[in-house]
Amino acid sequence: MIVGIAVLAKAWHDTMRDPVVQRITIESSGLPDNTDAVRIAFLTDIHVAGPDMPPSRLKRIVAQVNAMEPDLVAITGDLVSEKMTATTIYSPEEIVAPLAELRASYGVAIVPGNHDHWFDWPALSAELAKHPNISVIENSALQMGPFAVGGVDDDFTGRADIAATTAAMQNLSGVRLWLSHSPDIFPSVPVNADLVLAGHTHCGQIAYPWGGSPMTMSDFGDKFACGVSELHGKTLITGAGLGTSLLPVRLFTQPEVWLIEVRPAGQ
Fold first, then answer.
1. Confidence check: pLDDT of 252 > 70
2. Most distant CA pair in the chain: distance in Å?
3. Domain 2-264: what homologous superfamily?
4. 76, 44 in Cβ contact below 8 A?
5. Average pLDDT of 31-53?
6. Residue 26's pLDDT band (boundaries 50, 70, 90)?
7. What is the DSSP letter of 168?
8. In terms of Cα–Cα distance, which of 236, 260, 189, 266 is closest to 29?
């Protein structure tokens, strides 16, 4: 009985705590020498739904992100959750409204995730389009200040087109940043990528206390499921996300936001 209560208390704390800020610095030849570093705030798997992620909680997280003064905000999908265990399902307007308050010099870049498509991606996309600070990128690319941002549609539901995204990035310049909901595209991303950001796995959401998880939702198991991975000179960051999927609970994982500093090569 006592053990059960302790586990439940731990789970509620892990689910509802303020996001942990993970920090990393990378170098990119896409930034000219002797220029200032630029910063990316990376969010994923927000999963707006009751009871654990109402819009009011997301609004507080947005204020935390704005206080970091990022140059770019990158969001890699699953803005919403339509899980059967949800106590409240919110409208596209309610889901997007807190995100419209994000502030970054070069804007906010978003790619969709599987839950966005299952919920109502056309409605979510139309709501996002009302806000000039937000850019939705689907199997395409966009110049956002010193960032060449390639956004891949959701791989989990079979919508990713890496070839189209690669072609769209060819004439762009700067730091080559790829956004994908799933990390499983990482081996197929061109080797000239500086950084790939992904989510989907929640770092297991419910994990073992000694590390690892019974489920990662990745075809590669634990290989690319959490944190920083390197392959052929490319760097992948797979975020644990903010919200929850299927069950409204985390255990031995925590909500997180990444703050990534990108510096010119050699500095």
1. yes
2. 62
3. Metallo-dependent phosphatases (3.60.21.10)
4. yes
5. 96
6. very high
7. H
8. 266
